Amino acid sequence: MSHHFDTKLAKEDPSLNVCDFYLFEGAPGHTVMAMTVNPDAGLSVPDVLHKEGLYAFRFDLNGDSREDVTFNLQFGDARHADGEEHAHIQSYKVRRATGKDAARSAAGEVLIEGETEKVETKNGVRAYVGLAPDLFAGDAVAIIGWIKTYYKEKRYDASHFQNRKNFFGHRNVTAIVLEVPNELIGKGKVHAWATSSLYGHAPEMQVQRWGLPLYTHIFLTDPSKPELIDKFNAAGPAEDIANYAGVTAEFAENMSTYAGSVVNPSEYGKQVVARLLPCALPYELGTEAAFDQAAFNGRPLGDDVMDIMLQLASNTPLADGVAPDLSRTRKEFPYFGAAYMKEEQVGVVPVPRPTK
């Protein structure tokens, strides 16, 4: 639910639904970027990537919240994997674009190409696209109830988080994982985000943007402003402060007021805005990634980001009692562990596709 089912088009076509984005150090001198799509892949949705989709990792190198380097992927037609009716194989190409080309559709030189469900390696670049465990952990029922209480009853209610159930446990996603030499990105501190777009017979239309986990699911949830999430996902981070500073500060001010957790809610709201906007993931290349209460520096696979964002929104030690399944990670590329097998998913109910 970091960004599972975030926009109308993502609800209609989960292959364009960017669920999560990870950024961390891989092999020495290399950075790993990973996005996941297709929430509940193999149960309620197929494992296919959109053949007119454009999936991109975008990096701002100079602090202007505009991409300077982009790694983008496009996929070919799907075919059935040998001996497996419900598994599919697709070809893909990874391109790297810089400068003005970084913001253009499918621009750049081809770095590597290959097929899904295989690890591909070329000139220090590694790529993997395929079924993987969903490493986001969160009590979806609890956070929805917590936010509804905030808006409808104007109060803070931590009792929602006694449920202690990981809605995403034993579910799979499609993971897009790249590991590249740092020099292909830049030096020092970068700010990154991931996007999915439609790009085929018409000009590119961005479907979804992932900057920080749960930002839209917490701070852009005002039922009187339903347009905010679609507006956010259709654009880049350059206008985030102008567009969302007010609603972000208001949520943090009110939630911390209801919780009685700060002396000066207005000042706390400003601090949260400074922490979250522009909405992009900061990372110091070549350092150990950590997404925690003290600071954001990339995001490794195992950090419990829901607890961090809940605490930031309320300034309370709020936790949902569930955490990522670290047994489903690995130390070597592609870092995601094996996808959950059918026998491990017995009793896991397919997610009904949201319709609105």
Automatic annotation (TrEMBL):
Checking InterPro entries in the record gives: DUF4331
Mention any Pfam family matching this sequence: DUF4331
Name the domain of life.
Bacteria
What name goes with this protein?
DUF4331 domain-containing protein
Q: Which organism is it from?
A: Tunturiibacter gelidiferens
Q: What is the lineage of its organism?
A: Bacteria, Pseudomonadati, Acidobacteriota, Terriglobia, Terriglobales
